[in-house]
Amino acid sequence: MTTALNRLLAAPLAGLLAAGLLGAAGGAPATGHTGDDRHDASEHARTWAKDQVLRKGCRDYSYRYRVNPPTDQAWGLETFLVAPGGRKLASGALSDNADQKKGRDTFTVCRTSTRPGTFRIRAKLTYYDGFTAHDGWADTTRFRLRRR
Fold first, then answer.
1. What SS3 state is found at 136?
2. Does residue 31 or residue 106 have the better pLDDT?
3. CA 113 from centre of chain
4. Looking at residue 38, what DSSP letter applies?
5. Would you give the distance in Å from CA 95 to the centre of its chain?
6. How far is CA 25 from CA 19, 73, 103, in A?
7. pTM
8. For residues 63-101, b (16+ Cβ closer than 10 Å) or e, as one string?
9. By three-state DSSP, how is residue 45 classified?
10. Torsion of CA 87, 69, 7, 3, to 10 degrees
11. Interatomic CA distance for residues 103 and 92, integer angstroms
């Protein structure tokens, strides 16, 4: 599970990665991402979650992730939890500076703000090859939060 400090550090770093402001070598700024190279990142990133029980109050619900970018340079994984009705419910950020390439993270969900059903996790991977940023979407993960 990502600690509070890692979460605090990961979100701004992932934002910088996505904006193309971190350089891959020597602290030099990276070139901006043009958006022309969007691709399927399913071979480089994956999320998954077990079906769980939607409990009273606000609780953490875990999911697992794996990132395997084709380069050894900076990477960031943005995750988005989508509720059964299609509403975006929560998000998270993981990065090479604060997180392992494989691990577990959580989304905090309050039962009063959602309903049981099938939830989706969308994951966007951004990585660098030299000073060029690449990004793409991993396959969508589906899992159920059910009433007891």
1. strand
2. 106
3. 21
4. -
5. 9
6. 16, 9, 26
7. 0.73
8. bebebebeeebbbbbbbbbbbeeeeebbebbbbbbbbee
9. strand
10. 120
11. 13
DSSP assignment string, 85-125: TS-EEEEEEEETTTS-SEEEEEEEEEGGG--SEEEEEEEEE
Is 138 buried (19+), middle (13-18) or exposed (0-12) by CB count in 10 A? buried
- Please name the residue that has the structure tokens 């993270």: 105
| Contact of 119 with 81, CB cutoff 8 Å | yes
> Between vectors from CA 52 to CA 51 and to CA 54, what angle results, nearest 5°?
135
Instruction: Classify residue 131 by its DSSP letter.
Output: T
Give the residue with greater pLDDT, 28 vs 91: 91
Please tell me the predicted confidence (pLDDT) of residue 40. Answer: 83
The one-letter amino acid at 24: A
CA angle 88, 94, 30 (to 5 degrees): 105
Rounded Cα gap, residues 129 and 141, in angstroms? 27
pLDDT at 148: 79
